[in-house]
Amino acid sequence: MTEQAKSTEEKVAEAGTAALELANVDDGTRSAALRNVADAIDANHERILEANAKDVAAAEELLEAGEYSQALVDRLDLSASKLDDIAEMVRSVADQEDPLGRTLEARRLDEDLELYKVGVPIGVIGTVFESRPDALVQIAALSLKSGNAVILKGGSEASHSNRVLYELIVEATADVPDGWAQLIEAREDVTTLLGMDDSVDLLMPRGSSEFVSYIQDNTSIPVLGHTEGVCHVFVDRAADLGMAADVAFDAKVQYPAVCNAVETLLVHEAVADEFLPAMVERYREAGVTLRGDAATREVVDVDPATDADWSTEYGDLELSIKVVDSLAAAVDHVNAFGSKHTESIVSEDADRAGTFMRGVDAASVFHNASTRFADGYRFGLGAEVGISTGKIHARGPVGLEGLTTYKYHLEGDGQLVATYSGENAKPYRHEEFDGAWTPGHLSDADE
């Protein structure tokens, strides 16, 4: 049966079988397969770019018709240098420490009765993502390294690119259990996937807030949501204004189409007159469309900002500016309008920076650094399957650790619960100790 002829149910069933096998494949084999993927990407630039060109051409037609945004087209477009970066990312994932079989805790309940908390894969992961074909490779690489089978559903706008990348990944990973990665393409396949709570262990959608909410509202499978990025840079009254200008510029202009780009610049009123004129001119020279509140427009000539602007993810060369009268006002604004993604303060006062970082409710909070650093690769995680703006299971850039869970292994020597119950019950020790689980092994550290 061809890949296209298989139903979603059949693909998920194959992934479930593969997940059980993959959990027991050694790290050397999994990492070698990932290096094969990187080599395959390096060797097939022409094939990938030819497929991507079809997607980009179709997207540009819809851009001209007003149906797509420039940000979507930018995220969709691949280049030889981007493919080099993707291959390097895959190798970086391969080089990460194996997250499986790691002993997270060891506790001695009694002599020769030891409990180990051990890292294991989650199982079958379903992913639904939009626009970026490199996301397919990131997600697949992290899933394989962490021992998970994965169902991949990219957006129709990237269908040619996704198909070629998926085929290369499958061809390059012939030494791991067949069926570990599955590609679904039709919208109705997503509906089917959302109903398979008995077979899929985790869903990870990447896209707009509305998109993620739709997934959450239409499934009983646990969802690790990666929603929009309404990020802020706050220029404090104690900021080095040269540094602040560089950070604020990088956070907006370096790559505006991504979720960790800044959308609102907050400026303390004590430095607004000195900071804003040159900053606004620098933004304008880079083609940034600017909006500001009344206090901002008293200092610089920009368009008025509306209430909607404060909660908008532009994903483009657009920025809103607000002047605030205090550190507390900056924190309040971020907590009211931010998406709990990434926030940054520029300040030479460590106490004020600490107050901001403790007070802001976000997955990542930076001091004197661009919001663009919120990324799995830059964090040293190898890559990311997304940035979780929730607070359960994983938060911020989700790398290998976010794709694992744990189970308990108890090593004993014939002990019975009855020994520890009743009038003459033997007490438990409950002692933490340094030790790694191996089958049949009991620590002799106290003997």
From TrEMBL:
Keyword Oxidoreductase tagged: yes
Broadest EC class assigned to this enzyme: oxidoreductase
InterPro entries found in the cross-reference section: Ald_DH/histidinol_DH, Ald_DH_C, Ald_DH_N, Aldehyde_DH_dom, Glu-5-SA_DH, GPR_dom
CDD domains: ALDH_F18-19_ProA-GPR
Residues annotated as domain Aldehyde dehydrogenase: 4-288
GO terms of molecular function: glutamate-5-semialdehyde dehydrogenase activity; NADP binding
Catalysed reactions, as listed in the record: L-glutamate 5-semialdehyde + phosphate + NADP(+) = L-glutamyl 5-phosphate + NADPH + H(+)
A cellular-component GO term for this protein: cytoplasm
Compartment(s) of residence: Cytoplasm
Record-listed E.C. numbers: 1.2.1.41
A Pfam family this chain is assigned to: Aldedh
Entry keywords, A to Z: Amino-acid biosynthesis, Cytoplasm, NADP, Oxidoreductase, Proline biosynthesis
SUPFAM superfamilies recorded: ALDH-like
Any Gene Ontology biological process: L-proline biosynthetic process
Function statement: Catalyzes the NADPH-dependent reduction of L-glutamate 5-phosphate into L-glutamate 5-semialdehyde and phosphate. The product spontaneously undergoes cyclization to form 1-pyrroline-5-carboxylate.
Similarity section: Belongs to the gamma-glutamyl phosphate reductase family.
Name under which the protein is recorded: Gamma-glutamyl phosphate reductase
Native source organism of the sequence: Haloplanus rallus
